[in-house]
Specification:
Strand content: 15-25%
Bound molecules: zinc ion
Order of helices and strands: EEEHEEEEHEHEEEHHHHHEHHEH
CATH superfamily of the largest domain: ATPase, nucleotide binding domain
Largest sheet: 5 strands, mixed
CATH architecture of the largest domain: 2-Layer Sandwich
Number of strands: 13
């Protein structure tokens, strides 16, 4: 088994990131290319297969040494039926039997995992969550996703859909979410929501804000623009962030009370703002979660960045390879 090689693929809406590793997780080669996201699932599955051939060529290895493939992607993956029910980043990906189709391509066992679950496992084993058995990974970027690590492993629920923290309702009369309901956490606290609130504040025009000049100069407003404006004292930007952080804090307090984790790891583009984002979240938990749970929680920024998903898939594949050896 030690001679065998494993491939991990992070299938994103814009990029496919593929790494080749040995079963100890040592990376031998990698490739990153644009996802042919508009060409449908068949074309993307062929593209994934082609990236695996590329990393074998780069490493000077024969593809006959491939023993297993792990893929993580955003979306609702039915862990029991092995079907990608829907992927928000990949148009037309509905009810795709992804695992079976990939196994036909590769001729070896394939594991598919939700991307936040994979990132959570990667951070737990090799990133910010090292040493903590029970932890929550939350990624705050265009949307909000989460992975729950309980007793060292991914908690999936009965069919694989656990951890949809972005769709916890925190404000019942809030904005309409992509899932069709109102007031989901990601409609208020995601990067998309923060940028939308900034645009709305400028078009509203009732209060002076430096975001107006930023929009005129840059042609758009992003989360980093809002953080920069807030740091320079812009009260509109400060209020937008305060609301996003407040509702994310409510979500985290509820998760802490429910699961009593040792650690919360925050990843995604919005968390790149660092302590200005993390410190108030920590304060929210300390003052609002039930005291015995609040007393043991550590909240940290994720460490692995874009490597988290493939790292998690390499961990999952190593676990499978190890259990086959027993
Ligand atoms: Zn929702």
């Amino acid at each position: 088994m030690n001679n065998n090689l494993i491939a991990a693929i992070d299938l994103g809406g814009t990029k496919i990131y593929t790494v080749l590793a040995d079963v100890q997780g040592k990376i031998l080669a990698f490739t990153r290319e644009e996802t042919k996201s508009t060409q449908g699932s068949d074309a993307i599955i062929r593209q994934m297969a082609s990236t695996v051939h590329t990393v074998f060529e780069q490493a000077g290895q024969s593809t006959s040494r491939l023993s297993a493939v792990g893929v993580c992607a955003a979306g609702f993956f039915d862990w029991q039926k092995k079907i990608m029910i829907h992927s928000p980043n990949l148009p037309g990906w509905d009810m795709v039997p992804l695992e079976r189709e990939l196994e036909e391509q590769f001729g070896v066992p394939v594991i598919v995992e939700n991307d936040a679950n994979a990132q959570a496992l990667g951070e737990a084993r090799f990133g910010a969550g090292r040493g903590a058995n029970d932890q929550i990974f939350i990624t705050v970027s265009t949307g909000i996703g989460a992975g729950l690590i309980i007793d060292g492993n991914i908690y999936r629920g009965s069919k694989g859909f656990a951890g949809e923290a972005g769709h916890m309702v925190v404000k019942p009369d809030g904005p309409v979410c992509g899932c069709g309901r109102r007031g989901c956490l990601e409609t208020i606290s995601s990067g998309t929501a923060i940028a939308r609130a900034a645009h709305n504040a400028v078009s509203d025009g009732k209060i002076r804000t430096s975001l107006s000049a930023t929009l005129a100069r840059e042609g758009k407003l992003t989360t980093p623009h809002v953080f920069q404006a807030a740091q320079l004292g812009d009260t509109v930007a400060k209020d937008i962030l305060a609301e996003a952080i407040h509702y994310l804090g409510i979500g985290l307090v509820n998760l802490v009370n429910l699961l009593n984790p040792e650690m919360i790891i925050i990843g995604g583009g919005v968390a790149e703002a660092g302590e200005v984002f993390l410190h108030p979240l920590r304060e929210m938990i300390v003052h609002n979660a039930i005291p015995p749970s609040a007393a043991v929680i550590t909240l940290k920024k994720a460490e692995l960045g874009v490597e988290a998903g493939v790292t998690g898939m390499l961990c999952a594949l190593s676990d499978v390879c190890a259990s086959e050896e027993e």
